[in-house]
Design goal:
Layout (H helix, E strand, L loop, with lengths): L1 H15 L6 H52 L42 E3 L8 E4 L15 E2 L4
Length: 152
Amino acid sequence: MDGVRRFFQSRSHRREGEFGFTLVEMLVVITIIGLIMALVGPRVLNYLGESKIKAARIQIESFSAALDLFYLDSGRYPSSSEGLPALVQRPANSASWNGPYLKTGSVPTDPWGRPYIYRSPGNHAPYEIASYGPSGEPSGAGGAAEIKSTSQ
């Protein structure tokens, strides 16, 4: 029993002077963290891109609802020259404007920081609202595609 006690005491005396981690241990931990980030990082960035597209669609739907209220009050949709600011500020030629129609009091930009594009009349509907998406270009594919209103 006495030999076992001496063995553990000598080990504890040797360990007292050792503090921290070795360079190899640190490199192993950094490598593991790097591998995890390489696997998880692209997925997180993909979710971020998808969430911006969903946010743009939700904002466009909000504009559509506000435009419908504008139409009920004024009997028309704002012209292309009046644009979406007509939802928060009375246009000069609108006597029956009952706004503002957006709660924020201003027209928000799309999730990429660019203004929404509004056309009235649209090609296939009384109006069209669009965001050019992350590319900022009128055409694109996949996640870079143009996001448009779907009202008919």
